[in-house]
Each structure stands twice: as C-alpha cells, then as structure tokens.
Amino acid sequence: LEEYKGLSPAEFFYRNREIAGFSNPTRALYQTVRELVENSLDATEMFGILPDIYVEVEEINPKENVVSVRVRDNGIGVPPEEAPNVFGRVFYGSKYKLRQSRGIFGLGVKMAVLYAQMTTGKPCEIRTATPKSDYIYSFKILIDISKNKPIIVSKRKEKNTKRWHGTDVRLILEGNWSGSKNRIAEYIKRTAMIAPYANITFRGPGVELIFKRVTKKLPEPPETGKPHPKGVDIELLKQLISGFKNLKEDPPTLQEFLVTCFDSVGTITARRFLEWAGFDPNVRIDKLRIRDLEKLARRMKEYNEWRRPRATPLSPLGEDLLMKGVKEILKAEFVTAVTRKPASYGGHPFIVEVALAWGGEIKPMERPLLLRFANKIPLLYDEGADVSRKVVDNIDWNQYKVKMPAPLAVVTHICSTKVPFKGVGKEAIADVPEIEKEIENAIKEAARRLRRYLSKKEKEMEVKVK
Amino acid sequence: LEEYKGLSPAEFFYRNREIAGFSNPTRALYQTVRELVENSLDATEMFGILPDIYVEVEEINPKENVVSVRVRDNGIGVPPEEAPNVFGRVFYGSKYKLRQSRGIFGLGVKMAVLYAQMTTGKPCEIRTATPKSDYIYSFKILIDISKNKPIIVSKRKEKNTKRWHGTDVRLILEGNWSGSKNRIAEYIKRTAMIAPYANITFRGPGVELIFKRVTKKLPEPPETGKPHPKGVDIELLKQLISGFKNLKEDPPTLQEFLVTCFDSVGTITARRFLEWAGFDPNVRIDKLRIRDLEKLARRMKEYNEWRRPRATPLSPLGEDLLMKGVKEILKAEFVTAVTRKPASYGGHPFIVEVALAWGGEIKPMERPLLLRFANKIPLLYDEGADVSRKVVDNIDWNQYKVKMPAPLAVVTHICSTKVPFKGVGKEAIADVPEIEKEIENAIKEAARRLRRYLSKKEKEMEVKVK
Ligand SMILES: Nc1ncnc2c1ncn2[C@@H]1O[C@H](COP(=O)(O)OP(=O)(O)OP(=O)(O)O)[C@@H](O)[C@H]1O
Ligand SMILES: Nc1ncnc2c1ncn2[C@@H]1O[C@H](COP(=O)(O)OP(=O)(O)OP(=O)(O)O)[C@@H](O)[C@H]1O
Ligand SMILES: [Mg+2]
Ligand SMILES: [Mg+2]
After folding, report:
1. What pLDDT sits at residue A245?
2. What are residue B423's phi and psi, to 5 degrees?
3. Could you tell me which residues come within 8 angstroms of residue A406 by beta carbon, excluding any fewer than 6 positions away?
4. What letter does residue B395 receive in the DSSP assignment?
C-alpha cells in the first residue's frame, strides 16, 4: 500500500539542498557567503545607500570544520515584526516584484540558516535596525522544518544610541574553509568589480581583502514595474483582476484594467488593441469568464503593436562604472565597455552590458577569460552551461585581431526583471534567443573598439621597429 | 517602505516554471509528456506490473498551438481520496522514500497541470482505479495557486465492470508540436530502450511509434531502505527520534535507536561505534540534547567501520536487459553492457550501468554518441553540464582501438536513492566524485571488451585481405 504525504517548502529544500548550491561543506560555505552578501548589497544600493559591507569568516573548530560567517551592512535593515519570517520561512521576502534585484526567490538566506542548523544545531544570529529606528533588534532564529516556520530561540532590543541602521547576520556551520577560500576571495573581488561604489572588507583565516569604493556615484535605483502584455497568461490575468479592492462594488472596465495593470499601455493603445482583439472596451472585468481570459491572454501575446517594455525597473551599471570596476580589478592595458539599449523577451525587459579587457596584468590564455554577472551577482560555477560562454566561444576573435593565446578577458552582465537562471542556485543563464543575440551584438561592438586599439598598437610597433 | 510577503509552493513554481523545464511551448510539451510517462512507469514496474503505456498527442487547435496530451497506464492507480492532492498540490506524492524511482520531488505532474491551466484554463482530466477497485473514479482538477490546494471541478465514479486498474491523465495545453515532436519521439524510443519489458504506444499528428516488449522479465522492484549513518545530520536525527510512537512512555536506548533506524547497523556494530564515539549505549534517546545530537551526527559521519549501504533499494536494469534494449533500439553490430557492483556517496547507494554499442546502424561521429539515463529516465537536455559527458570526453578512445570518426554510442545509467540531479527539471547529473569514478571504471571495463572485439575484427579483415 503506497504512502502519500506532503512536504513543507523547508522540508523540500532540506532534502534537496544541493539544488540550491548546498551540496557539501566546501560549496555550502561559498554559497552562505554569497547569499548574505547579495542580501546586503540589495539592502543598500537599491535604496540609495552607498554600501559598506563587512564579511568575516572565523574558524570556530578547525578539527571539526566548524566556521562562523558574519556579514554586516549599513542597509535598510529588517522590521522586527518581519525578521522571523524573513530568516525562518522558505519562500518569504520583499523581492517578489518586477524590479531588478539580486534576490528573487525568497529562499537564499533560509538555505544558509537550514544548512547551519543541520550541521551544527546553531541558530542564525541577527542584529538589525531600520533607518531612524529607536531600537536595535537582536534575534536567534531556527527553522521549524516540517512546518516551514521560524522558531524564535531568543530576542531582545537595545536602545539605538548611535542611530545605526543595517543588518548583521552570523551563522555557524560546517564549512570547508581551505577548500572554498579561493572561490570566496574571487567572488568578493568580482563583487567589488561590479559594485565599484561599495566598500567591501573580507576577513578570513589567512586572508584579508579590503576594497575601497572608487566612486561615490550610485546607479539609479530600479523602480517597480508592471507586467507587460507580451508576458501574460490566464493565471496572471486572474491574479490582477482579483487584486482590485472594490472589484464587486466598482469593477473597472476592460480598457481601464489594461491601462492600470500593464506596462506601457495607454488609453489609445488599449482601445486599439481591444478593437483588434474583438473585445468590448467597456465590459466590466468581473464579467469575464475563463474562456474570455484565455482569448484575452492569447490575443495580448499575439498583438504586435505594444510599446516595448520600459527599462525603469532595471539598474545597469553603465559604461563608466563598468570600465572603472574592470580597470581597478583586472589592471588591464585596455578596457572598453558597452551598455546596450533595453531589449525584452517574453515581456521582460533586459539590458546586456559587456566589457573587454586586454593586456596589462591579464595572462595570455587559449580562450578568453570569461567573467559573468547577472543583476550584479558574480557567477563562478557552471560556466559550461551558461549562454555567455556559448557566445564567447562562437565569436571569431581573429576578425578582431585577437590571436590565441591572448591576454583577453570578457565581462558579461545581464540585467533583467527576470534573469533566466537555470536553477535556484543562480549559477548559469539559459540561452534565451533574444538574450543570446544581445550578448553577441554587445561583444562584437566592444570587439570592434578593441580591434581599433590593437591596430593602432600594431602600427605604433611597426613605426618603432623602423 | 518594503513590502514583505510569502509565496505558496504552487505560486513559486508558477513564477519560476522554467526551472522545472516549462520555459516555452516547445519545451513544455516535451516536459508534459515526460512527467506523465515517468509517473506511469513508476506506477507499473515498481509494483511488479508489466507496463502497458499509451501516449497520445492530439492537435486541438493548430492555429493556436493548443494540443491535448493523454497518457494511460495499467498501473496501481491513485486512491480516490488521494487523487486531488496528488494532481493538485505541489510537494505531494508517494515517492519521498529511500527507494529508487523516477519520481522524487512530488512536483512533476503538478507542473504539467499548472502549465495547462495557465495557457488554456483547462483542468486536468483523470480516470483511475486501484487494483480490485469496484469503481473507476474520474476527476477534473485545477490548482488553487495562491493556496497550493486542488480545486475539484468535477468528480464521478462508475462501476469498474471490466476490473481495470491504472490511470489515464489528459491535459490540454499550449504546446509547439512541430518544435518538440522529434525530441518526444526520441524520448519515447530511449524509454523503450531502458524499459524493454514495457509495451509503449505513442501517437501524435504524423507520428506513430509502437514498441512491443522484448522480454516478460521485470527487474526486481526496489525495497524501501533506511538512511545510512554516513548520510546523517542533526535534523535527520531529530526527525527519526520524533518518529517513535511511544517516545515519552517507552523511549528506546541509543543503541536500539541506531539498530532500528539505520541501514546496515547491527547490535554489535552499534555498540562498537557508541563506545568509540564516547556515548553510553543505554542512554534513552529522549534525554539527548542538541549538543549530543551534533556530536552523534559528527561521529557517525567520521566512523569508518560502517557496513556499506545495501543495494536493496535499487533496481538496476542488469546487463542482459540493458543489452537487449540497446540491441533492439540502436541496431548495432556489437553491444556490451556492464553493471557495476553497488557503491555509495554520502550514505546513498548507487549503481552505474554502462553499455557500448558499435557499428551496425550507428553513424560514424567525431565524438561518441551519448545516451544518458538516471533511474531509468532518459535525459535529453543539458548534456554539456552532465558528468557522463565529462567522463566520455576524457576517455582516450584510441587506447581501445576506437579512432574518430567512429560509429560508437555510449549508454550510461545511474541508479540511486538520490541521483544528484542539478535541477528540479532532472536533465543533468552533478559530478559527484564517487559517481564520476564509477562511470569511468564502467566505461573502461566495457571498452576493454570492445577492444577485444575490434582486434578480432581487425585480424579477420587482415586474413581476408591475404
Ligand atoms: N541584509 C539584509 N538587509 C535587509 N533585508 C534583508 C537582508 N537580508 C535579507 N533581507 C530580507 O529578507 C528577505 C529574504 O531574503 P532571502 O535571501 O531569503 O530571499 P531574497 O533575497 O528575497 O531572494 P533569493 O532567494 O533570490 O536570495 C529579503 O527579500 C529581504 O527582504
Ligand atoms: N499514473 C500514475 N499512477 C499512479 N500514481 C500516480 C500516477 N501519476 C502520479 N501518481 C502519484 O502522484 C504522485 C505525484 O506525482 P508527481 O509527478 O507530482 O510527483 P513524483 O512523481 O512523486 O515526483 P517528481 O516530481 O519527481 O515527478 C506520485 O508520487 C504518485 O503517488
Ligand atoms: Mg537573498
Ligand atoms: Mg512524477
């Protein structure tokens, strides 16, 4: 007789934690640092705060591979009533919006808390204060795995005399420091490259990396966007319709609904579309049945006259900041950066940025060194499964005067309200055709500038020789 | 002001469905067929039933890409009180055990139901009867996404006059048949290869594939196993301890606990381990505190005298059946198969099986054709990220008298209670060192036999020439 049962989300990810990057003590330590740092950068730069991030790994018990990871930031903190769920409930967070951020799943820090809890039994220790808060709140939190709920082991508050705001998270876990320290250091270094406005200090046994910001200029924070008609489906329509507060008493018309709920849809566009699609613009949306929603969704996707998705939910680095970061970290002889115009796939806006760095301290290699980023997150694993590697390998570099082995590094950065990550561990990006095309065009644009530089250099060499 | 919220599991996978393989209408149609077929094969062969599987794709509305997918099996059916959750609740199923099966996540069919529902609005239609059931139960089910609960649109029962048992699932979805039909046909063909005891009929617009079983011999169904001490952690210990019915009234001793709850631990082994680890074998387990569990988990993982995990939860194909299936499908001149002895990683038993097929109808290729399987599931995507591709590419085939281009196909099959899939879409397997080593050894063992065959063939050719 078969036994049937359900799992809570925490139980599911406890059992399948390798899918989220927690496969062994080496990878888990790396992922823990990553999840905390990405949360801290979101909590600062997305709110106009120049980030000061402090990362510390300590060996608590080297014989047993027990380490402590602490990450502290000067960000917006976590409200005390939200802290337990934010740290103790899988699928809980503040980033479920159409707005570029590093976090997207509401899962990351919970995986780290889970892993620490199952390897050492220790709770997550948090201190946090929101801007202007009178108090600093401290919590020790475990996860009740079978119920997917936080267990508040202890909590207290102290007067916030220094008017601090930010979050300090500490986890004690079984982690293989010697196995992961190089990757962690590389991750921190690349984070500094893509966030040259951040102060980042990283201390670990035998390692100290201090990156001081090379600019006080923050990129424009992204604004929360609305869904685009090209990305619609029946369930989204149902959710948007039920989202209206006075749906029963005062339901909007179909035309009002489109203008209110969707990106880049004005009254004229909405009317034109509805006439083309065969709908009465004045029908009240509470009167629509499933077959109407199915036809509406299908027609919205088919229609080709929509304005393209707006890029206000995106926050690219921009060519200046990207060049600054790449110059500072790679110490190359030549750097050029390209930020493409906004594009979109399936209704999601995206921007591709690419930098090429040549010479200087870059060593010659048989294939270009590839540094991948998505929503300002450095991606260090699964390169073979990533669309950027595929594009870089298909470029005919000879056409750009680059002969292998060559001291060439390619930096790719994809910003989107929906980066097509292949897994919840956020390591590789799927080869969505629109994105692949944009990466290729961006690289070629940058490569043409590199070619001009290398031709000029070649001529100067010829002159010297003569 | 930040907005914090939680998502239900259904909501999470609705938003991130590409991570489960439902990225576009082409891939989603493939994945839908896959999820249903894998469920049907689990429902038959794991219970000693020779599978009769019928798969049908129909074009409902070609202009709108609307297709219907139906899969019917003669398996153990679904009890009527379980059907709504089984088809309508993410993270619900009967395969959350230590036992080899295709299903592992309790997610697959729900993804297909979700995708159909969001693209056409249509519910999943199910007919099912368990063996000896007096009735056949029919359901139409949708998923309440925000609550992760089934919505029973309709249900009825009819007398089971023909004493049928099995399940018939039909979904209506937006799917790109012309884009995915070749992959689906390949998937069905490879399923027939790895399950040569199954009758499989596949009908679609312009396609009919009928695979008749070439043997009536089913592999031994797997038995549910217990966790192994090498795979333990604090949370698992807590779960096992709280699993005891009379924990308060009559708690077992630590020694009894180890013998009862763990694989391959007898009384003597348990006692020896506890003395080595520094525990009193007679302490009652309800007296253990977190710090004791932390020490116990750590010592269990460190101890090297455990018996290796038993392979009774596994169900490999075996060399005879594997050779039969490969011969039948690839029509090669030479086939050899190797089923390795059981091995383990992190406390999980696994068995690697490999077949090499050479010549006959196999076309010469620059690199060997690779057909990957895991728990009898054909894996057709993400080959570049899979451990088997890595191993096959690192073999020096010249040593085995194979010069490229060569008509060589490598079939790899990994069976485990925990296949280290890289994602919930089950396409690529991570390069866990123990598994990588076993695949390499299996291929080399088979390659030595291929070499003998090719040498013999070479000599015969030389004799002919003379
Ligand atoms: N350092 C921090 N400062 C402020 N808020 C934080 C911080 N760390 C986490 N949070 C809050 O906790 C929530 C949950 O974090 P978590 O890492 O689990 O998910 P996420 O960042 O939203 O998405 P992802 O799973 O992709 O990382 C965040 O959305 C954010 O609201
Ligand atoms: N054709 C079928 N016959 C009998 N039981 C079935 C059938 N299809 C599904 N089930 C039951 O429904 C459950 C849920 O199926 P689902 O595909 O969602 O998850 P799973 O197969 O357990 O795991 P996975 O997500 O890896 O596929 C199964 O565990 C099984 O108990
Ligand atoms: Mg996060
Ligand atoms: Mg399944």
Report:
1. 81
2. -155, 170
3. A358, A364, A365, A368, A397
4. S
Most distant pair of Cα atoms in chain B: their distance: 89
Query: In B, residues 146-165, which contact A (CB 8 Å cutoff)?
Result: 146
DSSP secondary structure letter of residue B1 = -
Residue bearing tokens 């009898």: B376
Q: Mention every residue, 6+ apart, whose C-beta is less than 8 A from residue A314.
A: A100, A222, A342, A349, A350, A351, A415, A416, A417
pLDDT in tens, chain B (466 residues): 899 999 999 999 999 999 999 999 999 999 999 999 999 999 999 999 999 999 999 999 999 999 999 999 999 999 999 999 999 999 999 999 999 999 999 999 999 999 999 999 999 999 999 999 999 999 999 999 999 999 999 999 999 999 999 999 999 999 999 999 999 999 999 999 999 999 999 999 999 999 999 999 999 899 999 999 999 999 999 999 999 888 888 999 999 999 999 998 999 999 999 999 999 999 999 999 999 999 999 999 999 999 999 999 999 999 999 999 999 999 999 999 999 999 999 999 999 999 999 999 999 999 999 999 999 999 999 999 999 999 999 999 999 999 999 999 999 999 999 999 999 999 999 999 999 999 999 999 999 999 999 999 999 999 888 7
Nearest C-alpha neighbor of A296 from the set A236, A252, A336: A236
B103-134 pLDDT, tens digit each? 999 999 999 999 999 999 999 999 999 999 99
Q: What one-character DSSP code corresponds to residue A307?
A: P
Determine the distance in angstroms separating the CA of B48 from the nearest CA of chain A, rounded to an integer. Answer: 13
| Cα dihedral across residues B59, B61, B63, B65: positive or negative | negative
Which site among B8, B11, B12, B381 would you substitute to test the A interface, given the most A Cβ atoms closer than 10 Å to its Cβ? B12
d(CA A353, CA A413): 5
Residue pointed to by tokens 């123990």? B434
Count CB-CB contacts under 10 A for residue B236.
Answer: 19
Are B383 and B443 contacting, i.e. CB atoms less than 8 angstroms apart?
no
Dig out the tokens for A304 from the structure. Answer: 């080709």
Q: From the CB of residue B119, how many other CB atoms can be counted at a distance below 10 Å?
A: 25
User: How far apart are alpha carbons B219 and B312 in whole angstroms?
Assistant: 12
A379, A421 contact by CB (below 8 A) = no
Contacts of residue B276, defined as CB under 8 A and 6 or more positions apart, other chains included, come to B299, B303, B305
Quickly tell me which residue has 């003395």 as its tokens: B275
Chain B residues with CB under 8 Å of A85 CB are: 4, 6
Two tokens, residue B279: 């525990």
Q: How many angstroms does the Cα of residue A61 sit away from the middle of ligand 4?
A: 42
| Consecutive H or E run containing B138 | strand B135-144
Tokens 């009929």 locate to B201
Q: Where are the beta strands (DSSP E) in A317-426?
A: 334-339, 343-345, 348-358, 369-374, 377-379, 408-416
CA dihedral A196, A197, A202, A207 (to 10 degrees): 40
Distance CA(B391)–CA(B393), nearest Å, equals 5
Q: Are strands A92-93 and A334-339 parallel, antiparallel or unpaired?
A: unpaired
Give me the amino acid identity at B163: R
Alpha carbons within 13 A on the beta-carbon side of B407: 13
- Report residue A448 as tokens: 């043409």
Give the number of beta-carbon pairs within 8 Å between A and B. Answer: 138
Chain B positions touching A382 (Cβ under 8 A) are 385, 422
Which residues, at least 6 apart from A300, have a Cβ–Cβ distance to it below 8 Å?
A229, A230, A232, A273, A277
* Helix axis angle, A234-242 to A254-261, nearest 10°: 100
A343-370: per-residue pLDDT in tens?
Answer: 999 999 999 999 999 999 999 999 999 9
Residue B427 tokens, joined: 């396409």
A148 to each of A32, A93, B12, B104, B244, how far by Cα in Å? 20, 14, 15, 20, 22
